[in-house]
């Protein structure tokens, strides 16, 4: 049993990595094209073989919010701890990242030095740092 003990996060400005911008360029292309993978709510309809470091989808049709999960580090087999960035963007944000008008994002970071996970909201919950193992009763 894992029990949640959430630690408070700190707001950070991070430079948008080039590969993430390339992934979002693909996403933007599908939004503009009106492709259904960008128009129906999902967690992971937006993903590409050549950009296997990120995936996401339209989170909320009404607000037009997209959510993405990005893996900032190179994939290593048997890695115990894989850092993730969870990112929330609307169509305008995505477009401005693609045109490089926006070069940075504000994300809430885990306070643990050993952890590089980041979240779109202050109440983000980290898989690695915010849970403690509880003995079965
Ligand atoms: Zn963490």
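-> sequence recovered:
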């Amino acid at each position: 049993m894992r029990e949640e003990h959430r630690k408070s996060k700190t707001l950070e400005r991070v430079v948008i990595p080039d590969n993430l911008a390339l992934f979002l360029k693909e996403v933007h292309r599908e939004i503009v094209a009106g492709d259904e993978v960008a128009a129906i709510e999902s967690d992971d309809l937006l993903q590409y073989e050549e950009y296997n470091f990120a995936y996401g989808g339209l989170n909320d049709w009404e607000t037009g919010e997209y959510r993405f999960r990005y893996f900032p580090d190179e994939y290593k087999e048997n890695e115990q701890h894989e850092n993730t960035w969870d990112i929330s963007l609307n169509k305008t944000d995505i477009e401005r990242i693609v045109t490089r008008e926006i070069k940075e994002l504000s994300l809430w970071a885990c306070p643990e030095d050993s952890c590089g996970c980041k979240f779109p909201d202050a109440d983000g919950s980290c898989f690695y740092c915010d849970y403690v193992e509880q003995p079965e009763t």
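The two ends are 10 Å apart (CA to CA).
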